[in-house]
Amino acid sequence: MPVTIKYLDECKQHGKPIVALTAWDYLFAQVLDQTGIDLILVGDSLAMAVLGYENTLPVTLDEMLHHAQAVRRGVKRAMVVFDLPFLSYQTSPQQALHSAGRALKEAGVQAVKLEGGYPAMAETVAQLVQVGIPVMGHLGLTPQSVHQLSGYRQQGTSPKSEERIMAEAIALEKAGAFAVVLEHIPANLALQITQKLTIPTLGIGAGSHCDGQILVTSDLLGLSDWHPSFAKPYTNLRKTITQAVQAFCSEVRNFQFPESKL
Ligand SMILES: Nc1nc(=O)c2c([nH]1)NC[C@@H]1CN(c3ccc(C(=O)N[C@@H](CCC(=O)O)C(=O)O)cc3)CN21
Ligand SMILES: CC(C)C(=O)C(=O)O
Ligand SMILES: [Mg+2]
């Protein structure tokens, strides 16, 4: 059974943690989906994780759509969410509608995600939801605002900032968002938001009290050359791949592969 908004709501109600990861291609999406995770995000973090950019700002809507199409082909069960890239939705609700519409029509994703809250984004979310496009919010550390935020610093550390993030979360829920990502905020603030909202919260660097967790897949696999402090590598694929390639090099250079058959 494919994962639906209703299923994610039930997870929250029953205290069953939601598991979410990012993917950028068919191969990884298929492997992840077959493990039974709930949600796959085509995250704009792919700008950094797989395209080698310094931040997420350069990646374009067309580039993201190309990745999303590949991801979609690999997924049968998980909900696929498309991360709207920088400046594909901030200009106006019309622009957001056009970009989100392309993600649903051209890549076949079930939902979109956008960064930010009240007041501008709440209005945009409301308009998308009104035409039947499910929206996931993203608050706290919003990487598309890296320059405005003076780096990838933890957010919600002052009473004023805490209050603002809580207000934005409430505004997103009111606007009709079906879930919200909370990134790099104190665990206690994430707990308060999770208790206050009826929609599920997905945490990344936001403690253990969210309704689910999301990580960048290359960080979980130990494939990235760098990962944020809050990520946990569950294996060291970088090392495994390096060793396999070195073994191949050695066998080719020593005429051991392929086996000689005359
Ligand atoms: N591979 C990868 N994993 C991610 O989780 C991720 C990305 N890329 N790219 C987009 C954003 C950027 N993220 C980040 C990046 C850096 C920190 C980090 O190291 N923060 C430091 C402070 C850095 C500073 O002050 O500039 C910290 O201790 O909070 C956190 C989240 C999370 N996202
Ligand atoms: C980490 C998640 C929430 C994200 O926005 C991304 O991968 O781009
Ligand atoms: Mg993102």
Q: What are the salient characteristics of this protein?
A:
alpha/beta, eight-stranded parallel β-barrel, binds magnesium ion, binds 5,10-methenyl-6,7,8-trihydrofolic acid, single chain, 262 residues, binds 3-methyl-2-oxobutanoic acid, 10 helices
What does this structure look like?
The chain is α/β, with parallel strands linked by helices. The protein has one domain: Phosphoenolpyruvate-binding domains (TIM Barrel, Alpha-Beta Barrel), CATH 3.20.20. It has 10 helices and 8 strands. The protein has an 8-stranded parallel beta barrel, surrounded by 7 helices. Strand 3 (79-83), helix 5 (93-107) and strand 4 form a beta-alpha-beta unit. Helix 4 (61-74) runs parallel beside helix 5 (93-107), helix 5 (93-107) crosses helix 6 (120-130) and helix 6 packs parallel to helix 7 (159-175). The protein is globular. The structure holds 5,10-methenyl-6,7,8-trihydrofolic acid (MHF), 3-methyl-2-oxobutanoic acid and magnesium ion. Residues 22, 41, 43-45, 83, 138, 181, 183, 204, 214, 216 line the site of 3-methyl-2-oxobutanoic acid.
